[in-house]
Amino acid sequence: MERVPSWRYLPVALALSLPVLACAGLTWWHAQKAQREEAESAARIVRAQTQHILAQAWEVLDRVAALTAVPCEQALPDLQRWGTLNPYFRSLILLRDDRIYCSSAVGKADYSVSEFRRWSGSLSPGGWLFTVDGTPLAPERPAILLGRSGTDGHSGVVVVDGRYVQDLLNAVATLRDYRIELQVGEGGAPIRSDSQGPWDAPSSLVYSETTNHDGRAPLIVRVKAPPEDLVQAWQQLMLTYLPAAALLGLGLAVGAYRLQANRRSFKELLRRAMRADEFQVHYQPIYGQATGQCEGVEALMRWQRPGVGYVRPDIFIAAAEEDGMIIALTRHLFALIERDMRSWTTPPGFHVGINIAAEHLSSPELVPDIERFVQNVSARQPVVVLEITERSLITDDGQARRNIDALRAQGVLVAIDDFGTGHCSLSYLQQFPVDYLKIDQGFVHAIQPSGEDAPVLDVIITLGHRLGLAVLAEGVETELQFNYLVRRGVALIQGYLFARPMPSEQFLHWYAGHAPPPGAKRPESSNLGAG
Ligand code: G
Ligand code: G
Ligand code: MN
To answer: Comparing C-alpha atoms, which of 109, 78, 108, 103 is closest to residue 90?
Structure first.
């Protein structure tokens, strides 16, 4: 049995957990976004309403500042009217330097601005704005103070009652258990919603914005929320989406497991088939134009599954390549050929072509594998031909090239199989030392009975010759094709016309009839047919 590596369940575990993790991440992100957006709209309400109140205050302030030109008695009726008519104003006052001399609330007065807590010393004469915790009239209630210079050393001040702003903050805060802070002007104390619980209870800043009110003073709104709010919102979302994500994960995991199990079972199937000797090698003779004889064979794997039938080689070869079994299968092929060749009578130098997959070609195991094979069939001294595809040259990272060099140095030949169908650029051909081109049967089948030229075929043949390579044509089925190729100097011919692939015993029989006794004449092309 196969030892089970611990990482084998990794894809299954990943398939199971990825959707759940993705769901957790996405819902967390979504909860944060929703929380920020809600806080933003709360802040927008606060900002809009505050600006609305301040706009009225600025407007009245202009008129109040103008009243600094007249004595308090004369200014008072206007101050009182404006102060009473506007619900947001606590009082309208006039001051000289830092002493208040007139107030809509108490009439003529004389007290210092220092009674306003947090009164700042340096105020810009053009207009100023700040928040205070309380005023002399209402020391416990915050207020917003707006001021402007009037005539010589006098200024007008509008005291906006913080109560309205605070009520607004409180109302908005109930939306989500928020704590909201509003700060207008520089340096003043912020006005805060008086939420249940102290302000220093753990709460995290969710949203904060600073806008420039009328270009005169910054207006800062901060929205805080208890940290568990986000967690709760996230849990809500998770409750909604987690079942679907878990289901998806489960589906993916089952899929991944099945895929793995299939692969494992295919590998196991191949191993069992090798052990049960279900594979066979068929040998397709290759006709040599120079000698007029069979000069070699291509070994082709066949799989006859008991009770199932014949499995097409292109299918099981491709599956074996995909599942990392091709090297094992090719080694099995070597063993089968070694067994078959023990009863052969082929002369030294007889070519034995073997298809080598890309993975094997670029594996460091290729050289020892081939050396062992050559050793094991040394009684017949064949020339081993590795048939490789163009793809295996393209994907080479250097190892294939080293393998080819090492094996060619030992007399092994290399053929490019199915030449013309891959995507091999001509530069590869120059770069890689090979011995043969095997022209794909598609080009051979392009030979028309009408006698027209097959231009692509002609170019490939010429190319092979110019590169000094032997050229072999595959899939030759008719005399017409045969003659066309011979006329163009194609040295080696493989195809049903000469012989079909056949099992070893049948090949031996066939070969006995086709290998002419020493010194015999070269047969005419019409004697080619296998029967
Ligand atoms: O004649 P046949 O149908 O067997 O060939 C189908 C395909 O399978 C051909 O492309 C041939 O190169 C490939 N093939 C046949 N036997 C082997 C083998 O032993 N190894 C590899 N890699 N390919 C093979
Ligand atoms: O390894 P390669 O791709 O060259 O495999 C050769 C394939 O061509 C094998 O599947 C073999 O059975 C097949 N074949 C060999 N001779 C002929 C032929 O004359 N005609 C056709 N159609 N197929 C052939
Ligand atoms: Mn081949």
So the answer is: 103
| Same domain, residue pair 215 and 318 | no
52 and 120, same domain (yes or no): yes
Cα-Cα-Cα-Cα dihedral of 480, 482, 483, 484, to 10°?
A: 80
Pocket test for ligand 1, best of 355, 362, 441, 500 (most atoms within 8 A of CB): 355
Q: What is the predicted pLDDT for the residue at 450? A: 84
Q: Residue 143: name the closest of 88, 180, 196 by CA.
A: 88
pLDDT band at 365, cuts 50/70/90? Answer: very high
**Is the Cβ atom of 496 under 6 angstroms away from ligand 2?**
yes
Q: Is 314 in the pocket of ligand 1 (CB under 6 A)?
A: yes
What ligand 2 atom has the least distance to the C-alpha of 298? 1
Picking from 46, 262, 6, the residue whose alpha carbon sits closest to that of residue 174 is 46
Range of the domain at 92: 24-225
Q: What is the CATH number of the domain that holds 347?
A: 3.20.20.450
Q: How confident is the model at residue 402 (pLDDT cuts 50, 70, 90)?
A: very high
Mean of the pLDDT values across residues 212-224?
A: 80
